[in-house]
Amino acid sequence: MSLTTAFIAELIRAANEVERLTPYEISRLLDRSVDTIRDMRRQASIAASHRARDVVIDLQLASSRARDLSPAETRDVMLDAADIIRTLKIELDGKE
Q: This protein's superkingdom (predicted)?
């Protein structure tokens, strides 16, 4: 299993167990997601969007307010991050 696949699985597991996570753990997972997405975009030569609706911006905001997120909001943002990373992985694997 690749590191990316393992991280996707970790995000999905965390999304299914959000009640057990501390705000710090949530923030760390979301920060790792941002770093992973940026790195994968760079590898795929995808320019980052500077629009207000860029997913990286949404993830950074969610990370900064992890303490205030409801369990449903936390679950949704983690599943969104996992889906984006999975999509980028598929794209990168297709280029090889």
A: Bacteria
